[in-house]
């Protein structure tokens, strides 16, 4: 019997050793072991932003990661333990409302995971995390309660002391499976948990507003680089009298509750694409002779306190190098292209013109738009003046011109009258499916022909010339794919003609401004879209040069000559253009090799080129750090400036894994102790029995 028992134990140990050996051999490295234990989740985080008053956005509550079991919001009445709540988009507003009202419930919210996709059904009225009157504090009129954005909930302007992630489609399926598994195995000893790594430096350091975090260097200011160009190029070296300026403006940045999911298809990228297509159409006119100066400006930072337009106006006041050749007093009118991607209604492209009170010049612009409309006879385009019941123009860059000078003339071209037609304003759902390419093409045709009419002498305008101004619809389709989709995204052929992008998937969040703002910043500090716009506008608004075939930068030595397309092949070509922004004379790999210090030393040896920085007018970069300036009576809008900053962080992570319940761990410990005690007692008894047996023998 003893021999048989010994044999069985030996077989069990051998089999256990073989099983363990086989399992261990399947993992060739620690990363392999981690892959089997953890599922990395693809998601887009809501991050911590700050202003002079406090914080908005999301962050882990402490210094470390947070892990909690995944539960579905629709199945939860009360939380009994810290939980990661999986919620559909149409339930997000109600969840966050409950968090703000129920402190006990809020204390048990470890994090929120938002499912991907657009909710269906008639009950879904839209999703806009913005306010009902975006940036109302900058409005040049008294009615700050007007609802331009009826879908707005304002959730992106509140602070949350827990992480929030928007999940990708695949990650949504994985998290739904984890939540379902947890529901079915409530009596089990394991559960699937989500681990959030959204640790913000401002939270760790206790710097909870822009002034303190800039002082402690735990954040950076929001900002980037605006671009402007002139057609034809402005010759600053001539003594000829400057022409009146027709300013065509739009913006390139959007916002979202989720930082890296800010596409802004209708607001504002449809307007940006319309302007680029208009510039392209005008560039193909042979022998263009204009009595007034056309200037195109693309602002960034407009979603965050109109950073781009306010800084642009300040640079004009200071007559800085960045705006050399421009004069605010010469700006005759401003034509702003806003949201134009949703104007397609039953075959008619309908646009609304929002005007300032400077009637005479605004009427000229309106007349130009109507004449442009009439020239588009077969395209079913209709423009109407916006309702007089509106308190004024909608949220737009033109507001900043009016705040500077209430008598400024201008119009904003939009696809809405009294309220946004875009139900996803400043939301990740404002994507390619939210706009219509033919509407953008119609807006572009209106803008191109109107600009030509405004900048020309009346006796030189005829229908044949207007008809020749033709927008390329294929070019618009290509831009839509480049700027609003990941395939091809910024890897598209059009963008690759001019720059080497750092990423394929576009995002139009403004980002942070790094390093010292200067006339020739380190290229690695400038976003892909700004670099593309600079090169594109420089190309389209340029005039022929004798050095056109010469490579850059050393051969671009003529007056007004610039080097474009320098990133793509390290050579580039010379053009004459008034475009202001940075220029990239080196291939991106060469930039990485020389580094920012070498760039700073060598940039003065390159061509003299400029850009217009976009950051708060209340900030100054001094002694390698940002400093807050006191309010200035000459800066009318400075008092309303929130001074937006973004917290620094190390790495943002999100993963899912299974854990054993603490009660099960305690049970195993208790069983282990019991087995140990029982074994000890058994050994004592056995020894006693053996001793007695030996004494008998």
From TrEMBL:
This protein's membrane topology, according to the annotation, is: Single-pass type I membrane protein
Q: Which InterPro entries match?
A: Ncstrn_small (IPR041084), Nicastrin (IPR008710)
Localization terms from the record: Membrane
* CDD domains per record: M28_Nicastrin
Ranges of residues in domain Nicastrin small lobe: 45-202
Signal peptide bounds: 1-21
Q: Which UniProt keywords apply?
A: Glycoprotein, Membrane, Notch signaling pathway, Signal, Transmembrane, Transmembrane helix
Q: What is its main location?
A: membrane
Q: Which residues form a coiled coil?
A: none
Q: Where are the transmembrane segments?
A: 667-690
This protein's record includes keyword Transmembrane helix: yes
State the family it belongs to: Belongs to the nicastrin family.
Per its record, how is this protein called by name?
A: Nicastrin
The organism encoding this protein is Coffea arabica (Arabian coffee)
Q: From which lineage does this chain's organism come?
A: Eukaryota, Viridiplantae, Streptophyta, Embryophyta, Tracheophyta
The gene name reads: LOC113701831
């Amino acid at each position: 019997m003893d021999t048989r028992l010994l044999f069985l134990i030996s077989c069990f140990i051998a089999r256990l050793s073989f099983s363990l050996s086989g399992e261990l051999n399947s993992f060739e490295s620690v990363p392999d072991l981690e892959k089997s234990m953890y599922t990395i989740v693809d998601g887009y985080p809501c991050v911590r932003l700050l202003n002079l008053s406090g914080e908005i956005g999301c962050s882990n509550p402490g210094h470390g990661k947070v892990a909690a079991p995944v539960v579905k919001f629709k199945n939860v009445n009360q939380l009994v333990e810290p939980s990661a709540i999986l919620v559909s988009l149409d339930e997000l507003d109600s969840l966050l409302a409950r968090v703000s009202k129920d402190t006990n419930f809020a204390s048990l919210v470890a994090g929120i995971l938002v499912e991907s996709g657009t909710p269906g059904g008639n009950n879904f009225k839209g999703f806009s995390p913005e306010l009902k009157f975006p940036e109302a504090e900058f409005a040049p009129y008294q009615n700050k309660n007007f609802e331009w954005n009826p879908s707005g909930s304002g959730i992106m302007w509140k602070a949350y002391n827990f992480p929030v992630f928007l999940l990708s489609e695949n990650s949504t399926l994985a998290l739904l499976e984890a939540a379902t598994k947890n529901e079915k195995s409530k009596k089990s000893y394991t559960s699937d948990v989500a681990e959030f790594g959204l640790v913000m430096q401002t939270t760790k350091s206790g710097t909870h507003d822009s002034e303190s975090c800039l002082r402690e260097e735990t954040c950076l200011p929001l900002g980037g680089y605006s671009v402007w160009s002139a057609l034809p190029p402005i010759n600053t070296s001539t003594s000829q009298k400057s022409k009146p300026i027709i300013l065509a403006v739009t913006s390139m940045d959007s916002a979202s509750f989720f930082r890296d999911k800010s596409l802004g298809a209708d607001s504002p990228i449809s307007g940006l694409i319309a302007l680029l297509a208009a510039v392209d159409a005008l560039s193909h006119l042979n022998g263009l002779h204009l009595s007034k100066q056309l200037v195109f400006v693309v602002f960034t930072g407009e979603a965050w306190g109109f950073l781009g337009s306010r800084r642009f106006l300040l640079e004009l006041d200071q007559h800085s190098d960045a705006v050399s050749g421009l004069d605010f007093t010469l700006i005759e009118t401003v034509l702003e292209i806003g949201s134009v991607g949703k104007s397609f209604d039953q075959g008619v492209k309908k646009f609304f013109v929002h005007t300032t009170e400077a009637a005479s010049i605004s009427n000229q612009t309106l007349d130009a738009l109507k004449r442009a409309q009439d020239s588009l006879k077969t395209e079913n385009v209709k423009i109407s003046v916006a309702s007089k019941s509106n308190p004024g123009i909608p949220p737009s860059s033109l507001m900043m011109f009016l705040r500077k000078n209430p008598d400024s003339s201008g119009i904003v071209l939009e696809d809405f009258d009294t309220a946004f037609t875009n139900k996803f304003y400043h939301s990740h759902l404002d994507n390619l499916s939210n706009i219509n390419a033919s509407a953008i093409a119609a807006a572009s045709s209106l803008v191109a022909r109107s600009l030509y009419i405004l900048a020309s002498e009346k006796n030189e305008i005829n229908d044949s010339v207007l008809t020749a101004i033709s927008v390329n619809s294929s070019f618009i389709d290509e831009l839509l794919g480049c700027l609003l989709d990941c395939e091809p995204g910024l890897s598209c052929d059009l963008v690759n003609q001019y720059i080497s992008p750092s990423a394929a998937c576009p995002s139009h969040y403004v980002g942070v401004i790094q390093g010292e703002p200067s006339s020739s910043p380190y290229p690695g500090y400038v976003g892909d879209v700004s670099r593309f716009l600079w090169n594109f506008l420089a190309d389209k608004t340029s005039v022929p040069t004798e050095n056109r075939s010469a490579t850059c930068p050393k051969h671009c030595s003529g007056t007004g000559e610039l080097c474009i397309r320098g990133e793509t092949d390290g050579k580039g070509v010379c053009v004459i253009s008034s475009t202001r922004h940075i220029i990239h004379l080196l291939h991106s790999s060469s930039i990485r090799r020389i580094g920012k210090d070498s760039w700073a030393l060598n940039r003065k040896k390159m061509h003299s080129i400029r850009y217009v920085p976009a950051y708060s007018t209340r900030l100054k970069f001094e002694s390698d750090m940002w400093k807050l300036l006191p309010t200035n009576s000459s800066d009318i809008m400075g008092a309303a400036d929130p001074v937006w900053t973004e917290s620094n962080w190390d790495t943002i992570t999100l993963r899912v894994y299974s854990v054993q319940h603490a009660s099960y761990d305690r049970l195993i410990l208790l069983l282990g102790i019991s087995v140990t005690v029982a074994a000890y007692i058994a050994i004592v008894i056995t020894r006693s029995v053996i001793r007695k047996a030996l004494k008998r023998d």
